[in-house]
Specification:
Elements (H helix, E strand, L loop, with lengths): L2 H9 L2 H11 L5 H8 L3 H13 L3 E5 L6 E5 L1 H9 L8
Length: about 90
């Protein structure tokens, strides 16, 4: 998937869209995302897996090693900006 196809993929799910938007602003845990979006954790986990499968987000173990954080990849950040979900700081 490229450009507009990725944008279409993200746009077809409100949870994917809001998750990418949130991660464009910086790393977050699935629990942080669920709380921020008032969404059930399994929905967030599915959206993260889908976004990760498209190369839009990446996963890293937290400093404590007990949980994972997710962040937008370069491609994910560029797509979020292109879609108007995030504005790069000037």
């Amino acid at each position: 998937m490229q450009g507009s196809r990725l944008a279409d993929f993200v746009s077809r799910s409100g949870t994917r869209k809001e998750t990418l938007k949130a991660l464009a602003g910086g790393p977050k845990t699935p629990t942080d995302l669920a709380t921020q979006q008032s969404e059930h954790l399994p929905h967030i986990s599915r959206a993260l897996a889908e976004l990760r499968g498209q190369g839009l987000v990446s996963k890293a173990r937290s400093d404590s090693g007990r949980s994972h954080t997710y962040k937008a990849t370069k491609t994910g950040l560029e797509l979020a900006i292109e879609m108007g979900l995030f504005k790069r700081a000037v």
